[in-house]
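Exercise 7. Predict the joint structure of the components listed below.
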Amino acid sequence: MPLILTEEQIMLQDAADGFLKENAPIAHLRRLRDSRDPDGVSRDLWRGFGEMGFSGVVIPEQDGGSGLGAVEAGVIAESLGRTLTPSPFMGSSVLAATVLKAAGSQTQKPWLGRIAAGEAILSLAVDEGPKHAPAKIAARAERSGNGFKLNGAKGFVLDGHVADALIVAAQTDEGLTLFLLDPATPGLSVERTVMVDAHNAARATLSEVQVDADAVIGAVGEGRGPLDAALTLGRACAASSLVGAGDQAFKATLDYLKTRKQFGRLIGEFQALQHRAAYLFTELELAKAATLAALQAIDAGRSDAEQAAGIAKAKAGRVAELAVQEAVQMHGGVGMTDEFDVGLFMKRVRVLNELLGDAHFHAERLARAQGF
Amino acid sequence: MADLETFRAETRDWLEANCPPECRGAAPGEAEMVWGGRNAVFPTPAHKVWLDRMAERGWTAPEWPREYGGGGLNREEAKVLASEMRRIKARPPLYSFGVWMLGPALLAFGTEEQKQRFLPPIVRGEIRWCQGYSEPGAGSDLASVQTRAVNQGDHWIVNGQKIWTSYADKADWIFCLVRTDPEAPKHLGISFVLFDMATPGVTTRPITLISGKSPFCETFFDDVRVEKENLIGTLNRGWDVAKALLAHERTMIGAMGDTGVGRPLGQVAADHLGLDEAGRLDEPLLRARIADYDIDAAAFRLAMERAGDQMKAKQAHPAIASMLKYYGSELNKRRHELAMAAGGSDALEWEGERSNDGQAARDWLRTKANSIEGGTSEVQLNIIAKHLLQLPGA
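Solution:
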């Protein structure tokens, strides 16, 4: 498989870019932020995403989705990175949809159609501490009545405060298990956490939350497989968003180098800046290659897909971090103003870097996999 | 796709049956590389068998057309061949500037007769080529070449000096930039010619590098006769050929580093330094730097693959080679710095059997040329800034 997009994928990219530019440019994010919108996300936009077939990109056609793959999901995630659009796409269309697709029961699968239509928002609650550590989930689910009683605390739950259902990962005696929860279940409290990038997240506390056995997704003790599938696709798509955000910040910087004058010359004439721009361009090309390769590996069902997604997430994270720092520095004082967009890119990249494991997390995993 | 899987299965069987055990394993040391040529040196007879078998299929130049001895494979088939060779750790049967640099330029600029004459011996490893580009006064500013070719009707007489000519003392033929019009602007008076290194008037002198080795030479031309039929491309437009060839050279240098075939650097480090109870390298800060390197090396290999796919699909900017050259050579230097740190004082030994005559240290020093040869890193960044980013005044 060549490491380039097919014609159909390029058409999808154009459609996603066009839709977002029209309906959710950066001004959309600013409006939600500045009006202190209680949801922090637009339900109308989410329905529009459904109408375009974006929300159900990886959901099978028989479940109401578009039946496409990881590369297509990455294409949309990259577009979202370019416009910084707050969207339930990552939490619902990528993470929750992958879990339900892999292990959802007949009564749970209808959620897929509602995600695909842009009607439902779902959240996946994995993280507990300040760093992503899915191997160390401490939340407990004890057998109780005909089901389970859940206790624990989750953080960085994307869209948790507006979710129509939450997927919670907790330990049982049989091992890690995934549960589908109604947010109104007694004992479950969800608190929105307003984040630096004005995108959505929440903390969820579970205190003696009683659920029936049919809340279990897949089999008891077998949550690791569907969770890993979701995390792998999530990481590759987060890498795509990082590439989108980093590339967009770089483009803005390049334009600025070609228009801003100091000392009677365009600042882009200075070799000190030229070399930094050339270096950044090169790094972005590496990040794009690693990201597309990971998405293709997932679609091909390759055994190294999980590792490829980790490499992509780490590389895209580091590169996007460099891109936004160079963007602010090369824009000078205006780069520090709230009025100018580059600061928004810096904030978003910081959040995406932390999401589903930062570069340190993935470098550590790669080292372990390589036996050192 | 089914065809490709059939090709993979057949290739796997053929390689398994035909790649001798002596020609498998981690990346070969310099002494084990087969460069071919009139005075070809083979570390074992099996190495010659491996070269001959691969050359017969054209797989020393897998993507060249069959009529010139190449393998006639498409890009996807060539990737399958490469991945199947990696799978059994098959070493390249031939290291060749003819395959990597001259061949692609001949395919683009040569006449039919020139292609017929020069390409098949390259595929078979019969003629070893060297590159006459740099001169004492023309390094980063390559178009300043002063070596003169004076018109004598059916031939030229060439006088001048080249420097950093890789393996000139071992090569059979040279592809060379000469000035055929001293009056024209510097880019417009250069021609690209081929001649036999055995021609009277050609002498070479190896240059000892900081590695103690002499992969490069000074090469002197004293009234050397060059036939006009050996002009490649148009007279005085040799810079076009030179640039196209440079793109291949840069891609080659960029790709010289970690191919992901050998033992991972972290494991090599563990051999020296040991693992702690948790199975981690016993030097946490070095371990972190190696892991970061691994991420970048993996991403770089994919960037090379993507650039190749973009070229094939005609979506690539020609200056993409500068990007690969720049990053690959800096990455290779980084790898060898880490390897030296991992080796500690073991890696400092310069002589003796234990260190294979200081291979680690000599390889480390050799990589310092990677970001100079084929155009310095700074020149590559200039090219990216000017041609890819179109920054003003670059």
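Discussion. The longest helix of chain A spans residues 224-259.
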